[in-house]
Structure formats: C-alpha cells, structure tokens
Specification:
The chain is mostly helical. Helix content is about 70%, strand content about 0%. The protein is elongated and about 60 Å long.
Length: about 80
C-alpha cells in the first residue's frame, strides 16, 4: 500500500491535466476513426449476400495467410 501513497503524493495538477487531455484527445480520435470506418463500409456489408473480394487473383494460401495476419493485427489493435 506504500506505493499507492507515493503515487497519490506525486500527483500534481499538471499531471492530472495532461492525463485528462490525453484521454479527451484519444476519445475524440477514436470516435472520428469509428465514424470514418462506418461511413466507408458498403451499405450491404452486413448482408448475407455480400461477397468481399479480398485478394481475388491470389492463391488460396496467400488469401488465408493475409486473412489470418489481418485478424492478428486487429486483435493487437483491440
């Protein structure tokens, strides 16, 4: 519990404001990115009839590798 009192004692108004500013900027940035992605996806993207052509002229092994890499990158971003 000693470390908590050290952290609490080291807090200054400047550090709190920098943290709050970072939070607000990242929140607004995330909202903008989500808005852009939602606007850019096709209207029928979530339809069961939508067929996505991801690397259409590539071998199946290349497509599967790219899909797996894309999912791993997405997992890391989350």
């Amino acid at each position: 519990m000693e470390f908590l009192s050290e952290i609490w004692g080291s807090l200054t108004l400047g550090r709190v404001l920098v943290g709050a500013l970072f939070f607000v900027v990242s929140l607004i940035g995330s909202a903008v990115v989500v808005g852009v992605v939602i606007v850019k996806i096709p209207p029928n993207y979530f339809s069961s009839h939508y067929q996505q052509d991801f690397l259409p002229n590539s071998a199946w092994l290349t497509r599967w590798g790219a899909v797996i890499a894309k999912n791993i990158i997405g997992l890391l971003l989350v």
